[in-house]
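Task: encode each sequence below as structure tokens.

Item 1
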Amino acid sequence: MRNLLHPKWLLLLNTAAVIVLALLCYGQFAVIRSLLPAGSVSTWSWLGGALAGVALSTLGYALGQWRRQQEVSTLYCLLTLVGYSALICIGVSLDTELLPRDVPRWMVPTDPLVYLITFLMPTLAHAGYALVVRLTPAGKDYSVLTNVGLALAAPLSWLVLIMLPGGLLLGSILPDWLGSGLLVTGLVVGTVMFLFYLVRVVYILDLRRGEYGQEFSLLWKILLGIVLPLLGLMVNNGLFWGNFGGTETGIFGNFSSPWFYGLAVLNGMLLCLPASPNRWLHLLLLFGRSVLLGYTFYFFLVFLPFLPLALLAVILIGTGFLMLTPLVLLLVHVRELAADWEQLRLAFSGRVLLVVLLSGVCTLPLFITARYLADRHTLHQALDYRYAPDYTCRYTLNEHALARTLGVVKQHKDRNSGGGPFGSHVPYLSLYFNWLVLDNLTLSDTKIADLEQVFLGELPEKTEQAARPFAVPAPAAPVLTDVITKSTYDARQQAWVSQVELRVANTDTTQRAGEYTTTLDLPPGCWVGDYYLDMNGRREHGILAEKKAAAWVYAQILNETQVRDPGLLAYRNNRQLSLRVYPVTGQTPRVTGMQLLHKEPVTLLLDGREVRLGTAASVPVTVPVVANGGDVVYMSGAAKQRLPLVRRRPYFHFLLDVSERQQQQKQAYARRLEQQFGAGVLTDTATRFTLVDAYATPVAAGANWKQELANHEHTGGFYLDGALRQLLVQAFLRPRATYPVPVVVTDNLAAAVLGADLAEFQAAYPESDRFYVLDANSHLTAHSLRHEAGRVLSEVAAGTSLPAPASLVRAWPTAAQPQAYLADDTLAEIVLVHPVAPMRPALAAGGRWQTGLLLHGYQQWQAFHPEAAEDQRVPFVRASFRAGILTPFTAYLALENPAQKAALQRKQDQVLSGKAALDVDEGESNQPTAVPLDEYIGLLVLAAVGLAAWHLRRLQPV
């Protein structure tokens, strides 16, 4: 332990920690600064200046002592304990000054005081250890019992004072302010003295272990290394009085894994083993002890922020001594490693010992990191396959590894599962897992259930809403009262620029605050170029931001107790806009609006009102409009009518459910198909079959599909959505004179993984959006690919000819060499010139409408190339920002103050740096994203327990 006196430790434990503390706190301050009153800003400034002053003084002292090759002095240790303890106490006393109650909590996910306590505790711990070494030099005789008595004096004194019938004597003699000040001072001094003498007892025992004998040394090693750690784990997990809501919770975190118990026993055994006379066995023992040093140090870090509360924990809870076990055990562990080093230096060089020691210390962190990286790889593979697949690749995932990874994700998501204040989180490891595996984001319960259904075949749980005993009518929502439009034709970019202004108000004028919501279908060739919301007498233009980040900020503002003024405009799907405005209060109307860019006059339906934008163009758009670069073409209805008409030949493509739930029924598929379609269809060379479970396995043309069906080994659930997507993508990228008619064969369509619709692929089915389902009763039903895919549109009568005569379609650009087929209607369409070739999202054009055409053309290209979504998502979002054109990946958000805008920027940076398939929140819950360090704030409540006991005693009659 003498090495702790070297000043180099101050650079790591103080200087580096304070730098991290300053960066974290400044990040919080920069967001909320505009909301802070002048007094709070001043408090932040002088407290930060005080912290900088003591940190720079410590740095200067460390460098000076290092240059003079001197150890840290006793005076430094005393001043550090006093100064940094005072700084923490002052910070706690100024809690409401640093973070006023009217500052929204979601803007500051971690309380600055948690940072202050967490990052200053290493300095205090080092000063305490160093002071013990300085005041306990070797070669002198020390009384163990005396130091034990001094260690117990503080908690016993406080216990006696609290239990006195009249309460603390200070409260009846001194003024309240002076009594409270002395109480806090006494608590801090008593805690420091208690920890000092406790550590000193262990240090003295180590110095005198030869005097007490090997047997006594072994006994207290067993006590500290095995008995107390196991007892602490069992107490934490509630094994003595019934578990807290399950096996995955604990008082200080989730330490229920058998690994914690096993490592505790192994660690204790290695510390108890005597040094072997065989140098190689002794070297192996050094390696084992160095490996488990990470385990001991981990629990030291876990309980380090709680050391200021150690005295209260000992006074109020007898098992509070278990909190101190890691503090003492770390001393024993380090001392054993030092003794091993001294003995082995006679047999090995210092370089060999250093390599062995460092290798051991790095083993556990590297093992955990490797495990988390494997979880990240497994999870990302599953997310890529489900949400951004490469249809040219064959995926093979380890379902068992995925099940374990999703289990860990769910465990780390559960912040308070009915047990201790920290739920099922594992302190620090949950933080590390969320950073390394989840990019500091999350995976919603919906997506977890989705992945489990696809790969593990588990059906999502059905949640039944409890019936209310009395029907409570919902308050009337705000409605649209007026729409004002203005359209101007921009000859330079040959497009219309229209302003659409909405006025919304409450029908129930007594309603305090309501949210106005509506949807708006945009035709092809119409883009949103701006959005605004009037608030507080001014017009606030919306910020074009990443969609998930904007939706999260909007949700957090709605959850506030104070009334704010956000407005959100985003795509609900590829063509439908969603508008939300909050709040609409009383009789006061809210004014909001948007700018629309469109090539031709359009008619929109807005809350039941027809809104006409633009007038009859003097020059109709009768020819294709090619965007700069030639990758995207806008085909108006008139231009489409000039294309040649062709009729393609349909063929059946049967999608057979071969998931685990269908293993007993798939033998009946051939009989059902022959009965419904006839043997001729099944033997037709054009007919295709695909076996669908978690993966879509196409049967090669001409192969025996019955044999393939019989030999197929099932994997996971019925991932119908992926099979349909793969079929439509292939049909679009390889346009032919034939087109598929999908027929799904399954006993239970409700068990299939099927999205709401496949409207984004409508360019792949110009003839018809119908697909069919053949169920266990040989009933054939029609469904729509365009909307509500799971709903039955109609039942096909037996003997009906399928498919119906194919509709005529338009061939583009020519019937001889078609590159795409378009529906024969008067609706405009966006056409990709080279749908197979790569396309870049960072585009520019001659005008904003042209740029919007390129952006929306790229969005359509990406739907058929989902494998490019991850790599090109950020450039696509940035291109949308530069152009000021809304896309399905961005949103316009109107905010009230600079703090909200700063919070939006912070959340957006976090989302854009993570994986696209990960989530910001739980969707409907819209809970603030918390940082695991927040867990420690709960234990600070223990500090109030002592004061509460004091005041309760004072209220009791004498």
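Item 2
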Amino acid sequence: MKPLTRKLLRELWHLRGQMLAVAAVVACGISVFVAMSSVGHSLRMTRASYYSEYRFADVFLQCKRAPLTMLEHVRAIDGVASVRARLLADVTLDVPGLDEPASARLISIPDRRQPVLNDVFLREGRYVQPGHPDEVIASETFMLANDLRPGDRVGAVINGRWKVLRIVGTGLSPKYVYEVQPGAFFPDNRRFGVFWMSRSALESALDMSGAFNDLSLTLAHGASEKEVIMRLDRLFGRYGSLGAYGRDEQLSDRFLSDEIRQVGIQITVLPAIFLAVGVFLLNIVLRRLVATQRDQIAVMKALGYRNAEIGFHFLAFALFPVLVGTAAGTSLGVWLGTGLTAVYEDFYNFPDLIYVFRFRDVAFSSLLSLSAALLGAQGAVRSAVSLPPAEAMRPEAPTVYRPGILERAGFQKAFSVPLRIIVRNMERRPWKSALSVLMIAFAVAILLAGRYSYDAVNHIMQVEFSSKHREDLTVLFNEARPASVRYDVAALDGVLIGEFYREEPARLVSAHRSRRQGITGLERSDGLKRLVDAYDRLYRLPEKGLVLTSTLADLLAVGAGDTLTVEFLQGRRRTVRVPVSGTIDEILGLSAYMRLEELHRLAGDHGAVSAAYLKVDESKASSLFSELKRMPAVSGTSMLQAMQKSFEELIAQSMITSTLILTSFAGVLAFAVVYNGARISLSERSRELASLRVLGFTRREISFILLGEQAVLTIAALPVGVLIGMVLSVLLALGLSSELYRMPVIFSGVNVVFSVSVTLLVALLSSLLVRYRINRLDLIAVLKTRE
């Protein structure tokens, strides 16, 4: 073994604590990068494979009723590659073991299996058979949530008629990767599912022979989606079309695309912080190593070692912990990625979400870590290489000390000697102290920003499930009902309060901008459904005009006082000019509101309602549910409490997982910075501390001098870390927000206390380890001079 290699191994063993701390920080950054890169790639590859194999469409359209002969006109549109017409209906279900009414979306499939757009993946059971009109395939999430198996039966009201459906298979479809009830944002898998039924059976049940109400198509390469959509709108306007739209407006794909985009954001932020801290730690460790080995560098040069050999020798001190951290981080990243992939399987419905590990991610992460090593080591290596042998043989020139700000102000007289030593040392090395504060602050910031999403989700749940929605039950009608339906609903046993609203599909146009957007007509804005913004402030609905959510107003480039062109897509299909009365910053979705009476007037009809919010007498809920299950006019229901519980269960696992990961990583970061800072201070000041011991200072006072400085730096880092954490949280809120939802900027005192407490606890642990080293300080060996 070469002499320099033996020296390297001996020194690495001596510095093992500090090197392992650096390796741990690097491992945290690399593991996050590898895990999130692989998860993002896995989601993209799984989506692409699933969409391709089961032929997910590019453009979608729903209408009231159109003849099948229209398909020839659609195929004639330039750029259309393939077309599929389907039947679709929303129905109420009676599920065994479930007291409340459930809802299902019935979708037609060919009587005999054949490749079609938006095909069905069959997980279990078999395909429907011709001549068996009661057979259906049910979505996997619905089956699992209700503990159903192929062969079980459910009741349904289809087109006003009661029908018993027999489930023969369990399936999935690329159009429902994120499966939620129409109009909802949160899944309730127990009370909503997707059912696939043979075309002939559903055609007969809906009295839709030779017709369709749902259209999907794919585009040829290079085709203009916008042009195809315009042609479709012109063709199907007279058939009650609600407007064609592309994948970017398809709810399931938008949720999935937003998730992939958010994973990309996480790939950059955390690894950058950890590698920056790794650079800082390597720099201070190696600079101290070069400073303490000046005489050894001189001897090596005198013996004939070239500058390149000496430079590579000291560079190896940086490469070793980085390579160890990269290896450990890669393994940890694979383990984390596999676990996170399992979490995503609970959110998104893929036939098989496989974790795909890419060596490219490892190569890139290795390049990042090596770059960090070179960046952290360059200053120390340069000083070792440029050090002349004659100068290196002499002890390092003593530092020139000058009175600091506090000393010049006379404050030192108010401090004890140990405190004055602490203050002087920090004042004499302000940049090092400032960087130490910044690195510890990053640990606090990661904890706070990591738990920001927990605060935000809790706030969203509070606003959506408590403040905004105060109904017990929402009843959806299968078609617009006259205003007199309120008397029928009020007569139902168990209904305490009923409020009705109208959802009118429309196109909002402002200059060259337009948007398909339903307009919601409300009876009042402070009833069971309240208009509240992202920060739970009540908004009063004006007598006239539209109220738009802020994001929708931005998309249309309008504000209060501007005027929109509203093209109604149903009924008389009127086009009217409507003023924008104001905007409201809601959390979820894009919405347009106005008073119900005003919407009736603009639509030009006698008034109709789409659904009702109900407050229910709990003692009579069972009988009410039984009646709703068989009401022909009801196409679906949603339970507020059930949706909240489902959302809480779904989000709990991911929140716990992310909190544990970030807490662990931030703890490693804080430990590494505090421990390395204390160890280097001990190495630099061991002669000074030993002299103080000889002069009569106790071990406790010596520990106070050394660890007190680290305590001051840690305490100073806490408010800085909280501030950085808040800034990171704001950036995360902006990065994670989309058209589907906006992340509110919310900070809770609990999470601030949690972040500060974890950092202090880790700092205390690292201090105890350094205190053990102080107690073992060899006074005789330390006080020996080199002269």
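Check on item 2: The chain has 22 helices and 20 strands. The CA atoms of residues 116 and 403 lie 82 Å apart.
End of task.
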